[in-house]
Design brief:
By secondary structure, the protein is of the alpha+beta class. 25% of the residues lie in helices and 34% in strands. The protein is built from 5 helices and 13 strands.
Amino acid sequence: MTVSNQSLMMHRILRGLILMISGLLLGCSTMPPTLAPIPPRRGIQPKSYKMKVAVFNFIDQTGSAGKLVQTIPDILATELYNTGRFELKERAELREIDPAQIKIVQEEYKEQVDTFLVGSITQFSVDEKIMTLDVRANNAENGTVMYAGGHDVHYTGVLEVKVDRDDIRRIAEDIYTAFPELGGPDTKIISMSGNAVNINLGEKDGAKVGMACLVIASGDTISDPGSGETLSQDIYVGEAYVVEVGEKVCKALIVDSADPKTKSRPFLNDRIRFK
């Protein structure tokens, strides 16, 4: 083979390689980018599915109430439970706490409940058989006052004092009203930044600072073995508390989620259920 033929052959081989590489590069440029797989959503076990309340012993500012500092919270806790709106921290445990130590132990209990209920007996009339109670419900996470009210409660007896249960029931009803049941299937996260989320529900809907809510996502899809129907399993992926309220939107902070490092496991468009 002559030198010219050898050069021609090399030229053809080189040209073929260039065309082949160009084709490969062109094919790669039209391939869609590979997306990282979305990790499966991991749920959490909420501290409660209802508003969980710790009802502490009352403070007796009159020095005359005796065992009523424990009896009144016992009855109030029962009446709150009867509304169907609340889940109660066991009173037997809380009954052992000295009212003077409540502020100290609240730090311990804030991981277990949504709301602290505290109260004081501020007046005690022996002649009229009436006492005055000041009652407050505070958000356990940030101390926001969710409810505050003064109430007159009638009682009978001298040594064995019994309070009027209907008066205590009315206090429970007032507290119930302070925690309206909000939201629906369209209540959701509309924007988020870090552990802060905006929810499409605001003051006009009854939202208040301090309200607790659960973040809900769709979990694994399962099939009904009988009908073959495809079912979606909801999972709870976070808990949050409202910190700001606008007319139509409220802002909440995620305080518990499936990813403790980022506190932002919930995603955009996840549904919200208020406790």
